[in-house]
Amino acid sequence: MENPHARTCEELLRFYSVNPEIGLSDEQVEKSREKYGWNELPAEEGKQLWQLILEQFDDLLVKILLLAAIVSFVLALFEHDDQITAFVEPFVILLILIANAAVGVWQERNAESAIEALKEYEPEMAKVLRQSKVGVAMIKAKELVPGDIVEVSVGDKIPSDMRIIKIYSTTLRIDQSILTGESVSVIKHIDVIPDMKAVNQDKKNILFSGTNVASGRARCIVVGKIRTEMVQTETERTPLQQKLDEFGEQLSKVISIICVAVWAINIGHFSDPAHGGSWIRGAIYYFKIAVALAVAAIPEGLPAVITTCLALGTRRMAKKNAIVRSLPSVETLGCTSVICSDKTGTLTTNQMSVNKMFIFGNQSNDDPSFVEFDITGSTYEPAGQILLDGKAVRSSDYESLVELATIGAMCNDSSVDYNETKRIYEKVGEATETALTVLVEKMNVYNTEKFGMSPKELGCASNRVLQSLWKKEFTLEFSRSRKSMSVYCTPTKNKTEVGAKMFVKGAPEGVLSRCTHVRVGSTKIPLNPRLIKKITDKIQQYSTGRDTLRCLALGTIDEPFSPGLMQLEDSNKFVQYETDITLVGVVGMLDPPRMEVRQSIEDCRRAGIRVIMITGDNKNTAEAIGRRIGLFSEHEDTKGLSFTGREFDDLSPEQQSAACRRARLFARVEPAHKSKIVEYLQSHGEITAMTGDGVNDAPALKKAEIGIAMGSGTAVAKSASEMVLADDNFSTIVCAVEEGRAIYSNMKQFIRYLISSNIGEVVSIFLTAAMGIPEVLIPVQLLWVNLVTDGLPATALGFNPPDLDIMDRSPRSPNESLISKWLFFRYIAIGSYVGAATVGSAVWWYMFYEDGPQLNYYHITHWMRCEIEPENFNDIDCHVFEDPHPNAMALSVLVTIEMLNALNSLSENQSLLVMPPWWNIWLVAAIALSMTLHFVILYVNILNTIFQIAPLCWAEWMAVFKISFPVIIIDETLKFVARNWIEGKAGRDLRFMLKCSVIVFGWVVFLLTTVQWFIPNEIWNVPVYMPGDLQNREL
């Protein structure tokens, strides 16, 4: 039925054909279920396994690699020699693709599993009337259907949207903060709401799914179920996905050009004798080299490493109570420039607590003075102190505090319960009454010994002592007209000298008008207009300004009416019995800000992130909280910075857009406002994180770049979000943003690591082809290096600690280039050295190694002419050019140099002296494992046959290390330049010049030492022979 809030109870009962005393029949239930379905969230229909696998191959880099595998397989068919390595290469490529797909599928499946643990919040049981059951029966909430008659009472969670048809208690209070952000429970009634367009806050006769009963008992009819449909919006690709796509397109173009160039420059060698004089075989051979170049250029491990790094980031976030549902959203967090946060439960604790109170002390100028106390503790935990002028006092020393505690304990139907699983105290009942319960425990007016009590016992120990001294005979429940409630109590046998009393609690304006006296110690003093004004001014002071406390007046009727004279059935007459009240004191309470939020907002400000508070609560309360958490300064004028939903609606579109540019607070808003605010912020180029917990927040959460649902929120909000806060804490969002920035930084580091390494491989292949020297790296070796050897350190780079200044930088633009010009230069510089060193190690083995063949430059650049020009290759065994040792040297240098390059990638610009390797122990372990794997293929016979390499001796390993180590010095120099010139942070002082001098001197010493080692003395004396003179040289 549409608009059930505007229908009478009789209309609803007729529509569903139900008797409110006996409920639906089984036949009606079945028909209704066929029509409406189960009252539960349907499991999201996940993608089939084959769909997930295919998605992993829908990537440009993967497609290029797949093409390389097919070409390699075709080329293997043309091999005349029956070599095992011919077919190993394409199969290794395919295995790598399958491994990458498996990682991607596993991570996608695993990312959703954490969210399942949060479904515990859903109401599991409901109290329902059914014709087939006797009385009120408990059924699973998912079995409810529209038309069911349901009973709810204190502590119940509402299992579905329901219309109230009968209230058994004087009042029914509902905690619907999860839906509207109102920190105070809402009074409900059964009257018709004629406004068809009423907002949720005004639907006082409707109970909303997921909210809680704070006090009272009622009977309702189910009129709806949990909303399961959301407006479908197109899922936008995150900045990193877009950049990787662009990078893939650019890479494919560059690869094509380089491959064609390598093939073209070797056209003159197609007919060389090494290819049997066949031009076609030569062309195929160099095409294979070009394929190897493509394999080297494509960072095969990149998709898998990025996915793994994002997943590792989600697990770190989960430990900090931020559960990420969408892996790419982790990266987007680093771009966040605006955080739109709910107030209740996120910026505040959603745990109402008494912050201040006052009683009356000694008289001054014929009027009693105020004795004001501050109360510490901002949660439901019954721990805190009562402070007078900043010093802790014993409440038992003040008779008025003893009486105040008695009123708080007796005028109360709520309690606190210790949740063993979460290890926190939670409210049972109404928030303001729970705050009084906790206050009584903090006051401990009878000095109850609590040592050795369990947490559950600590939650009610002092209250039980007070409740044992008085017997609650009956309650005059709260009514909106008199704004108070009271209990009629008689003393137990322990206090026979005291007569019956009525304890009263209510809004100050309602109670004070019926007060005749104030309590001072054990006496009472008559009220006069001057004293009433002083009390009113004090309460006004509590209720406004920075505190904006919600005040309750507590009083006693020392000589109440006899119960026999009271008409308890008529609540309209309760006000007549609550007269001649003696005011004992006033307590001021608030939903306190979380202690860590102020620092988090300061962190956001430092990081260039604007925080906007969005709440359904009133503007004054929200602004007061805003000042306490640092959203506004203490005396800042909030005009133009703070708006109510109605004020915002009254603005023109241009003014609304301008308001969103500077606003820090929106109060009394509805979910529709959130969507509009997100739209304006996005039009300004902001990357927005939006929090929400209610069903109606889902569209705004889907619209924002980062939708953040509360762990205690609705399942619909969670399914629409990218991230869920398990602890509902704003500070967790800030931690997640910091983690997002760190993850993006780490991803840049391992992209830099992989790309610079692959550039080195490209350079080595290009140099080999251009110089015409024997092949130093074959495709299968390149694949092994790229996925296995490179992949492990690259993944470990995801564990890099965040830079110390990570939250001192402004949010990066989503349009920021993934690779800046300076970074590109660094890639080229490091890559060029990697390539040159790899080729140089093979050349060193051929020309300069004492135990090597000691050939000259002509020999190694014209090696294919060895058999047809014997006069130029005197006594040289041509099989030396097929020796696996040069390949082993080149591969070992490549692996070692890339391990050292991984150390360079600990930080983009910080020196290894500042961030030593052990700061990331995972990287050290990954390097050790990668080197171990390299030793395995080097020294296990069958493997070194497949990879066409041979074991190296100690002298050869020393050469490998000496050739590899300069990459550290080169990158340290580049980091020094970046810190002092590119970032422009260093001054040109004496200390700076000294650093420059040390680096230059170090380079000179290093280069001289390297040249002296690389080229032995006797080599300098070797004359240079031209090809025609080689027959005269004695080898």
TrEMBL record:
Catalyzed reactions: Ca(2+)(in) + ATP + H2O = Ca(2+)(out) + ADP + phosphate + H(+)
UniProt GO MF annotations: ATP binding; ATP hydrolysis activity; P-type calcium transporter activity
Bilayer topology term: Multi-pass membrane protein
Domain Cation-transporting P-type ATPase N-terminal residues, every copy: 3-77
Principal cellular location given in the protein's record: membrane
EC main group: translocase
UniProt keyword list: ATP-binding, Calcium, Calcium transport, Ion transport, Magnesium, Membrane, Nucleotide-binding, Phosphoprotein, Sarcoplasmic reticulum, Translocase, Transmembrane, Transmembrane helix, Transport
Annotated TM spans: 60-78, 84-106, 251-271, 283-312, 750-771, 783-802, 823-847, 918-940, 992-1015
Subcellular location: Membrane; Sarcoplasmic reticulum membrane
Domain of life assignment: Eukaryota
EC id: 7.2.2.10
General function of this protein: Catalyzes the hydrolysis of ATP coupled with the transport of calcium.
PANTHER family: CALCIUM-TRANSPORTING ATPASE (PTHR42861)
UniProt name for this protein: Calcium-transporting ATPase
Species: Trichinella spiralis
